[in-house]
Design a protein that fits this description.
It is built from 1 helix and 14 strands; from the N terminus they run H-E-E-E-E-E-E-E-E-E-E-E-E-E-E. The chain is mainly β. A hairpin with a 5-residue loop joins strand 12 and strand 13.
Length: 153
Amino acid sequence: MKSTSKKILLSSLLVLFLSTSTFAQMLSVKGDKVNLRASPGTKSSIKWEYGDGFPLRVLRKKGSWVKVKDFEQDTGWIHKSLLEYNPQVIVKVNRNKDKKINIRKGPGTSNNIVGKAYYGVVFKTIGKKSGWIQVKHESGLKGWIKENLLWGY
């Protein structure tokens, strides 16, 4: 009986560990000109400024403040009232290059190209299928982008 209890406890702890560590929570910026601060508090220095929808990974929480990391590995604090669960992704490839990625009509390279995007462009996530993310840009453009070209899913 003791051995069975230990196995159940270990299994439960493993599930808890995996659910909190491998599936980091993603949030998006709510509003324009939202400040990323060096530490929690409005008197803390501003490290960066984000626009509406910018995806961020939650690192930890402290009171009403959330420590986050962006796709360029910048970290800092944002007040929780300026964040929301609204699945967004950002183009993470071709930094400092005049090169665009393809946005396709369907999930696969055999589908027609319906648009293109540069590094740093933010999209709303609509769906996922076989290594592709279905996205919508604020301009109204909808399509599919290969998952490995994006950050935030």
